[in-house]
Please model this.
Amino acid sequence: MIKLSFPFTEAQVRALKVGDEVLITGTVFTGRDAVHKYLHEGGTLPDGVSFKDGIIYHCGPVMMKQPDGSYVCTAAGPTTSIREEPYQWQVIRDFGLRGVIGKGGMGPKTQAACKEYGCVYLHGIGGAAQVLAECIKKVNNVYFLEKFGSPEAIWELAVVDFPAVVTIDAHGNSLHEEVWNKSKAALAERL
Amino acid sequence: MSQLLDSLVELIRRTSAEVPDDVHRSILSALEQEKKGSIAENALKIVDQNIALAKNKSQPLCQDTGSVLFFVDVPVGYDQITFAETARQAVTAATKKGYLRQNSVDSITGKNDGTNVGPGAPTFHFHQHRSSEVAVRLALKGGGCENVGAQYSLPDDALHANRDLDGCRKAILDAVLQAQGKGCGPGILGVCIGGDRATGYELSKTQFLRKIDDRNADPKLDALEQDVLKTANELGIGPMGFGGKTTLLGVKICTVNRVPASYFVSVSYMCWAFRRQGVTLDAEGKIEKWLY
Model:
């Protein structure tokens, strides 16, 4: 297990390779379909949100509002990342992301952007909403709650030892590409 | 009425927070088979920890609490309208309690009113039968696995899939290949051969009401189920698409008649977080027994 802690520097990220298991500690922002489309269309991040040397988490959590107005996260696994494939490369380039947490992997555009700008794709365990919610120690803030609704809002989360696997590294390698090629060949032999 | 409401909220709570025993056994058996120390094994260990945590905390196994699908068997004369109204109230109550995410949005505006109730949400499939029993089965199907479902129209030239069982096999295995890890594998396939585009998908989902270790009564379909399961697990896609031995936990196939011009193979994929439960209800709407 490799500890990946804030601030997420380019050097830290470039040292990672496909297959590495990491534990992430620091601030991460959620952002999924609505946020990516909005940024792709020229939208700007709200005051208080910076992706510079940061990590975005493809996640629509379950959040319970407390009597004092704060939020507790009660379920927070990754959502399928491939839907952000048309936009992710641009968000990495324009906003300086060092990491993208999601599930299911991403395609060649994101793979190329990871290599060029120094970013990694961190695969969380899909469906493991309770184990991952336990890693969220505090919900610091929420942005675009009214605009996008709770699952699509930008939630600022303080995470400790959040487990993930590097499946696209900053050197042009992708576990998804490798598994796709091998499984396709294996199936061809069995038809 | 309020007894029925309480029962349905409890059905939703348990469905969201607990995988049924048959599914859990199947996941534990997959965990045994993965190579020690591999990322596939570690992924399944986290899955198993998650199953225990969700149950103990009565919180959703997965934050995507999915499409809410009710399959209701009712006696002749049963008031389905009142049942549906009460079920909608139960869905809203369960959402307030955090058993369900605010998960239903207007398709065009994207507006989320936070109730999980709206046009088509939740969904009801009523089935009248001669028995006096009221049986309510519920599936919560997440969007990640729903998105990797696929429908094939045979013959499919690119797949060299003809209108026969071998063609069906090719189509189903192509769906497994295309899904990779995007549907949160290891997954379970529900398949319908035949029907039209709508009934094919609908019936593919009713296959998820079968227990994972049951066997198909039709020997030809049973052989196809076992063959697809074995072959899929030889592809090396593995849990989460990380590579590994377990790509699928189960395959369930049904057939219905088709018109001569159509030959659909409809494949629905269910993630490992296979949320399906069921109850029978007494005359007052109280839970008599759990079905899974």
